[in-house]
Amino acid sequence: MNVSLRWLREWVQVKASDEALAERLTLAGIEATVEPLPRAPDRVVVGRIQSIRPHPQADRLRVCEVDTGSGTHTIVCGAANAREGMIAPVALAGARLPNGTEIRQAALRGVESAGMLCSAQELGLAEKSEGLLELDADARVGAAIGAHLALDDALLVPELTPNRGDCLSVRGLAREIAAIHGVPFSEPAITPVKPASKTKRAVRIADRKGCVRYAGRAIDGVVAGARTPDWMRERLRRAGLRSISPLVDVTNYVLLELGQPLHAFDAGKLQGPIQVRRARAGERLTLLNDQPVELDAADLVIADDSGPVALAGVMGGAATAVGATTTAVFLESACFDPASVAATARRHRINSDAAYRFERGVDPSIQRTALERATALVVQLCGGAAGAVSEAGVAQPKPLRVTLRRERLLRLLGMQIADRDVERLLPRLGIALKRLGRIGWIATIPPHRHDLRIEPDLIEEVARLHGYDRIPAQPYAARLVAAPVTEQRRPLSAVHQRLAARGWQEVITYSFVSPALQARIEPAATPVALDNPMADTQSVMRTSLWPGLVETWRYNRQRQQPRVRIYEAGVCFSQRGRDVVEQMRIAGLAAGSALPEQWGTPSQAVDLYAVKSDLLALLGADAHDWSFEPGEHPALHPGQSARVLRAGRPAGWLGALHPRLRRELDLGEGAFVFELDAEAVLAAGLPKVARPPDFPSVRRDLAVVVKDEVAAQTLLDETRTAGGPLLRQARIFDVYRGAGLPNGCKSMALGLIFQDNSRTLTDAEVESAVQAVMARLGEAVGASIRT
Predict the structure, then answer these.
(1) Coil, strand or helix: which one is 409?
(2) Contact, 568 vs 508, CB < 8 A?
(3) Which of 61, 112, 287, 430 is most exposed, with minimal Cβ within 10 Å?
(4) Quick one: average pLDDT of 538-563?
(5) Which residues fall within 8 angstroms of residue 88, CB to CB, at 6 or more apart?
(6) β-strands 274-278, 203-205: how paired?
(7) Which distant-in-sequence residues (6+ apart) come within 8 Å of 396 by Cβ?
(8) Which 3 state secondary structure label does DSSP give 750?
(9) How far apart are CA 646 and CA 654, in angstroms?
(10) Is 52 exposed, middle or buried (0-12, 13-18, 19+ CB in 10 A)?
(11) How far is it, in rounded angstroms, from Cα 624 to Cα 151?
């Protein structure tokens, strides 16, 4: 929201410069900047077109005689809206317009022109405009355009947080500035308009939760062809709003001035009394932006006897909109429930200035005041006779009272604030204080401050007005107890360090993902749906880290990054009954070449074993507790996927992305992924101290023939079980398939190392252990010695 500083200073008299004012606002917690407006060009004045005649040599041009206050000038003009008696800006010879055009007296197709009649675009007041900028009929001819439009101004641009909806108006910002600077807040008096018409439309609130207060007023005899004056047009323009018509402009002006959204209905199109209620099944409404909406039972609507005429707090309906022929209007000023308005606006994907303010909370005590202000402006600009005000709901909200304790104030701020300072600062914000003995105060919160609900909120206000920059920096007095460091858990930082050392890069992705992508990766999972998603593609919480990694890989691949090693440590969410379960996981994705391009090693694509090697390096000394077994996962390639286990318990997955998934997501070449339970990865076994053996080891190599489907891990597990305490190591050092073996079989070479710490083993003991291994392998997997 942009605010004219000239307008703002009419409400609060502050001697500080524009830049200093913005700086004080920023230091008080409301970030603000100042944007100067373009300087008004010299020698551009208000002129009146006295007469118009056709150009003798050009059909599209006309010759105008223009009174500029210092005489009558002949000016050639091609604007279609030029007419006799029109008041418009005139750039005289010697003027330089904001776009760099220098005005000179020159002949246009044989007719001397002493200047140029200007459009809003040519004066830098609009990005695009058609025809001349028409000024007020009573504008003083000859006055400088800068003086007439008050262009000597600057814009205050505050970046408001969602909790400060009270500052979304000139009134709110002026009130805040007055409190910060300790100066009076001079709110202009708004005099109620006396009823001059007997017309009164009944209003009723059927849903008191959705609408706290509703006020309306009928105005008859409105002049249809009225024009919005220049001063109002300029203030709307500087705030970023386009002038539409006097009735609409008045509602927008009061919105900016007081922060109360209003709506103008064409009273001639309304049927019967006004009712605030929830929508009914099958009801539809076409909005002002011509968007048709099918109403939901949760939508709060404004309705008459014909049905819904507006989405409450969001947007009016097209059928009852005011237009060029409107002669009777019904003004609405209401206070709607923020949650209801926010839900309706998001449900129908509608953004409006009204919804933006209602979502953040509107002052529930200002509806009548705003209605009186709008009525006075409508009567001033468009004439007409106002009827009596119709009201429903709570006249004045019950004030909230919060206890503020001295001890709590000292503890949170870390410095002593004198009682007289507290009693001087908070009342500037409209907060009434009543002493509560030695405890502190009872604070009565003004209705416009929806963000003040608990004691720390009040303490924050004291700190803001006292000045954050005046709170001294000092050591934090606290008794800190160092947490015990256990050897049975490695820190997450160790995971980051090991993966980084292996060439992996950490990424951080959104916790909310596309439901379509989530379903492709884990179709059986039940994701947690968001009530208020930022977009349809981010409407569920992730049940796996893979969707974020896949999207990151696709984004990089589309930008010519052929090789990635990315990982993420983050929380995943799953729905189990009514509970949402959070689980910390560590996942990664590798694609492209195994090593960066270089001259010393031939290029080779990354494969499953390269990723598995990195995982084993990550697990470190605990790798012996981990194992891999074939498994099927909907996101992984059949035959290239493995379930990862720790101590026999499932702890994650490793494998290549499924070809279907790669094809649907346009991922090109293969990518390999892993995902592990972080708790299993971070759990570490206690270190064990062992004396180096004094006696030699004995190695025996066996070549066994087994079926192709026998996994290497199974063979090792059975070997270690049968080898007994003398078997210290067992490893597979060769796999052979080919001639000399039965069909469907393979040969696997086992290296067995036997050792005892107390003596040298005999050949008979070793041979007995080898025979036990062979017997076990024969029974368990049908292995036989290769001959």
Answers:
(1) helix
(2) yes
(3) 112
(4) 90
(5) 46, 47, 49, 82, 117, 118, 132, 133, 134, 135
(6) parallel
(7) 365
(8) strand
(9) 13
(10) middle
(11) 77
Among residues 652, 625, 681, which one has the least CA distance to residue 494?
Answer: 681
**What's the mean pLDDT in 461-480?**
84
Rounded to 5 degrees, what are φ and ψ at 317? -90, 155
pLDDT tens digit sequence for 228-273: 999 999 999 999 998 999 999 999 999 999 999 999 999 999 999 9
Q: Is the pLDDT of residue 578 over 90?
A: no
The Cα–Cα gap between 90 and 66 comes to: 8
Eight-class DSSP state of 167: G
pLDDT in tens, 110-124: 788 989 999 999 998
Alpha-carbon span 644 to 654, nearest angstrom:
7
Q: Is 37 left (phi over 0), alpha (psi -120 to 50) or beta?
A: beta
pLDDT digits over 291-333, tens only?
A: 999 999 999 999 999 999 999 999 999 999 999 899 999 999 9
Q: Pull the structure tokens for residue 240.
A: 């970023």
Q: Is 3 exposed, middle or buried (0-12, 13-18, 19+ CB in 10 A)?
A: buried
The residues near 299 (Cβ < 8 Å, ≥ 6 apart) are: 278, 279, 311, 312, 344, 347, 348
Buried b (16+ CB within 10 A) or exposed e, 86-124: bbbbbbbeebebeeeeebeeeebeebebbbbbbbbbbbb
The helix (H) or strand (E) run that includes residue 512 is strand 512-513
State the chain's mean pLDDT as an integer.
91
Cα dist. 343→160, 300, 346, 349, 725 in Å? 21, 10, 5, 10, 68
d(CA 82, CA 86): 7
Q: How many CB atoms lie within 10 A of CB 324?
A: 7
Q: Which of 317, 316, 318, 314 lies closest to 344 in space, CA to CA?
A: 314
User: Nearest-CA neighbor of 334 among 351, 318, 308, 310?
Assistant: 310
Instruction: Return the sign of the alpha-carbon dihedral for residues 626, 630, 631, 637.
Output: positive
3-class secondary structure, 155: strand
d(CA 580, CA 710): 40
**Residue 368 near residue 333, CB atoms below 8 Å:** yes
∠ at Cα 329 (328, 330), nearest 5°? 135
HSE, side-chain direction, 13 A CA sphere, residue 693: 14
- What are the DSSP calls for 567-624, one per residue? EEEEEEEEEETTEEEEEEEEEEEEESBSS-S-SSS---B--HHHHHHHHHHHHGGGGG
* pLDDT for the residue numbered 603: 82
Q: What percent of the chain has pLDDT over 90?
A: 64
| pLDDT at residue 594 tops 90 | no
What are the residues whose beta carbons fall under 8 Å from the beta carbon of 340, sequence distance 6 or more? 209, 210, 298, 300, 312, 313
Angle, in degrees to the nearest 10, between helices 246-258 and 230-238: 50
Q: What is the pLDDT of residue 490?
A: 86
**What are the backbone dihedrals phi and psi of residue 481, each rounded to the nearest 5 degrees, phi first?**
-115, 125
For residues 669-684, one letter each, b for 16 or more C-beta atoms within 10 angstroms of the residue's C-beta and e for the rest, the string is: ebbbbbbbbbebbbbb
| Separation in Å, CA 732 to CA 58, 619, 708 | 97, 20, 15
**Which residues, listed in sequence order, are joined to residue 284 by a DSSP beta bridge?**
294
DSSP per-residue string spanning 337-398: -HHHHHHHHHHTT---HHHHHHHH---TT-HHHHHHHHHHHHHHHH--EEEEEEEEE-SSPP
User: Which are the contacts of 265, defined by CB distance < 8 A and separation ≥ 6?
Assistant: 309, 310, 316, 320, 321, 322, 329, 330, 331, 332
660 three-state secondary structure = helix
The answer for 114, left when phi > 0, alpha when psi is -120 to 50, beta otherwise, is: alpha
Mean pLDDT computed over 644-648 = 89
pLDDT at 67: 94
620: confidence class by pLDDT, cuts 50, 70, 90:
confident
Task: Judge whether residue 595 has pLDDT over 90.
Answer: no
Two structure tokens written together for 516: 């379509």
